[in-house]
């Protein structure tokens, strides 16, 4: 089987396939004696680029030649680039290096790799998705599809414990990100009339700056302080080598504390050896605020989907090995918490999905041929599921709401997160004023499932620096020119269409039948004089 699932993670990546019995298995990273590969790239010199644990070990000493957390940059509008030995690398190219390392794991063990499914966070917008796909292609992989990480985790869980309709909350705490997603599994019929389980995203939220690294940082500071106390030093007097020594031992100590009540680390403090013992209880106390932050996101999600509706809570991500996380989630959802290989579940689910897709193609080409009695287990497993291509975010225009005493600028969510793609929605609006010369129709994406949003955008419709609650992002602007003497009662029909290739916006002046579809995407294109007058209004008549 040459079909694989890849979890391209912020801090660790993982690759899996189905074994001959149809059960998902991870390809071992023998070099690092691990199931995962650190998503870290070290540009040692012109001819040597290292990916994985060996790259990670250079973070403190050679930090300016190391790239990590590149997933946070991929597909960003103003993506940064990296420069080494006169060559410039984009986030897509760095990600391709990590994917190449995963591909090599397979090939080094005598396997061949062709078709892959790569996972992405549920909150990834369309640009991040297409950049991820590009990275796969650049690594010489044929990307069958992408799949949302929580959906993949749910697939790998349901493959072992199949049950009809149910609602699953996926709590994914990785190395650098925290995501909470609610999924609904429900029975439906596929194209050939077979009963299959459909997976739909109901809500998703999280923080792309909250993860295991924050626990590492707390532990680092704790050990540094202890080293100072034991040696009568101030933090400023601690040498760089000592800091590096602490840094390189922190993650291991954290992992030990997931298993044991105490972890001991030996640090060379300015030449003299110091042993520090850390108690799990102390570690839990110093990081309790971080646990609380993740639970705040869970609570916010429970405002959209009530806790009683959740049947199962799945713990995903390496950081959920920490007992403090298991306990906090268990306390909120007694008896509902499940955890199975949290650092591999996403890759395994992607492998299941990849073979589902290949199987679909095979069964189409078999044109209704009877399957033999001894069909592999994989087929029985995967034919139980269907994953719809769903909109990763909500989309809609910014318009003026004339109802009430004060005009409000609102976002109307035409298409909501989790809708089946392609998704299309049309609505008629009107110019704000008589004789208006043009409309700057702005399109937004966000993670709210509300019909309308009064977001933190200024009166010209520019999203403010951040909108943490709804992650509102301006996608671009459509200029609709209006002929002279256009009355404010002229209906302008606005259509949004979202498919895997992106968002398409169209406006039709129904008086003249003129159609506008040139959507300006980049900030510099739309950075012209803005005016609140250039808006459309929701009819208030
Ligand atoms: P990603 O963030 O890339 O999705 P993972 O889900 O593999 O990656 O999570 C990586 C994080 O999990 C790292 O911060 C790592 O230190 C942490 N981690 C892995 N194993 C353990 C463990 N046994 N105890 C505590 N933390 C762990
Ligand atoms: Mg992950």
Q: Can you describe what's shown?
A:
The structure is a single chain. Helices cover 28% and strands 32% of the residues. It contains 12 helices and 30 strands. Residues 367-381 and 524-529 have low confidence and may be disordered. Strands 20, 21, 22, 23, 24, 25, 26, 27, 28, 29 and 30 form an 11-stranded mixed sheet that branches. The chain is of the alpha+beta class. The structure holds adenosine-5'-diphosphate and magnesium ion (MG). Residues 9-12, 36, 39, 174-177, 211-213, 251, 254-255, 258, 317-319, 321-322, 343 line the site of adenosine-5'-diphosphate.
Give a brief description.
The protein has 541 residues and is of the alpha+beta class.
Q: Which term fits the overall shape?
A: globular
Low-confidence stretches: 367-381, 524-529
How many whole angstroms does the radius of gyration measure?
A: 26 Å
Q: Span between N and C termini? A: 63 Å
Q: Count the DSSP helices.
A: 12
Please indicate the count of domains: 3
Determine and state the CATH class of the largest domain: Alpha Beta
Helix residue percentage: 25-40%
Extended strand count: 30
Q: Could you say what the CATH topology of the largest domain is called?
A: Nucleotidyltransferase, domain 5
> CATH superfamily membership of the largest domain, which one?
ATPase, nucleotide binding domain
Bound molecules: adenosine-5'-diphosphate, magnesium ion
Structural class computed from helices and strand pairing: alpha+beta
CATH architecture tag of the largest domain: 2-Layer Sandwich
Strand count, sense and closure of the main sheet? 11 strands, mixed
What percent of residues are in strands?
A: 25-35%
Mean pLDDT rating: 88
